[in-house]
Amino acid sequence: MYEQLFKSIREKVALTPTEMELCKTFFIPKKLRKKQSLLQEGDVCIYNAFVEKGILRSFSIDEKGNEHIVQFAIEGWWITDLASFLTNSNSIYTIEALEDSELLLLTTEARDALMNQIPMFERYQRLLLQNAYIANQARINSALTETAEDKYLNLGKAYPGIVKRVPQHMLASYLGLKPETLSRVRKQISKK
Amino acid sequence: MVFLELHQHYLCVIILFLYCKIKAMSNRKTVAILNVSSNNAILLATHFALEHAVLLFNTDQKLLSRIYEQLLLENPNAQVEPMLCPTNASWEADIIVVSANAFANESLIQQIRKVSTGKIVLILESITDKKNRNSYFEDLFPFSKVIHCCEEKADAMATFSLKGNDLQALATLVTFFTTIGLKINVIFSSTINA
Q1: Fewer C-beta within 10 Å: chain A N or C terminus?
Q2: Contact residues for A150 (Cβ-Cβ < 8 A; gap 6+)
Q3: Complex ipTM, two decimals?
C-alpha cells in the first residue's frame, strides 16, 4: 500500500525504518473508482493526494463548457489544488480518476504534523515543490514557444506512461490543442 | 436539531465554527456500513444515501441481499451498493460505520484496520450495551477517529448520541447527521483533540 510512496521518498531523502512506520500513520488510504472525483470545483481542497496506483487528472471548465486539463498524475506522483489546499479557498479545479486508483491522502494538519515530527519529510516536500516549479516553468515555455508537433513529441519523451494511458482528446486538452489538431499532428508524425 | 452537552462554553464555539466550515466544504462522501443489524443498516443507509454513496457489507450475504433489495424498494434512486469485501468497502469509504457487536469477529477488525487510518470510524452501539469499553475501540483503531454512536431505537424519530474526543470528526458527523435530517446529541469525552 505504501510501496510507491516510500520509493518516491527514498529517491530524495533517507528515512529510518521507525520514521517510515510513523509516516504511514499520517496518510489516509483511499480507493477511487474510474470517473470518481477526489475534488470538485467549488469545494475546498482538503487533501494532497499521492498516487499509489492508477491515474488522475486535474481540470477546470471555462464559461463555454470546455475542459482544460492542467495536470495528470500517475503512480508515484502527487496531485492537489495547492492554492485551495494551503489557503482554504474554493477550488477552481476538479480532480478525477481516469482509472480505478489507490491513493494516499494527506490533510493540511497531517502534513504539518508529519513535517514537524519527521524533518526529513519537510525536506522531501521542499524538493518536490522545487521540481514542480521547474516543471511548471518548462510547461509555460512549451505552451508559449513550441509547435504542436514538438509539444506532442516532447510530452511523449518526458511522460510516455501518460501518453499511452490517456485518451487522445484529453492529451489535446492538456497540450492546449484542439483534438483535430492533435490527430493531424499524429498522422504527420506517423508518416515520417 | 442539535443538542450540545458541553463542559465548557468555548467548546461550543469551536464545534459550531467547525460545523460551519465543514458545511461550506460540501464534499460528497462515501460511507461504508459494515455488519450493522438490519434495522440500523436500513435507517442509516436510507438517510445517508440521499446525499452520499453507501457501500454495504455483511458477513451474512443473505441478510445483505435482503437489506439491499429493501433499500432499493423504498428508494429506487438510493446510491447504495452491496460489497463482497469489507476491506474494499472501508478502503473506498471516507466514513466507516460498524456495529459494536461486529467486533467479536477478529478477522473483521484485521480486514478494515489497515485501510481505516485517518478515517472516521463510527461505532454503532445499542443503548442496552452496558459494557464500559470506551477505550476498547480507540485501542483497536489508534490512528482512526473513533466516534461512538448510540441510538434508542431505529426509526426516523430516534435521537443519536455521538461521543468522541476528536472535535473535527464530531463536527463532520454533526454536519452529516443534521444535513440528512437526523437528530443528534453530542457528548465530548474528557480528553479533547482539536
Answers
A1: C
A2: A142
A3: 0.91
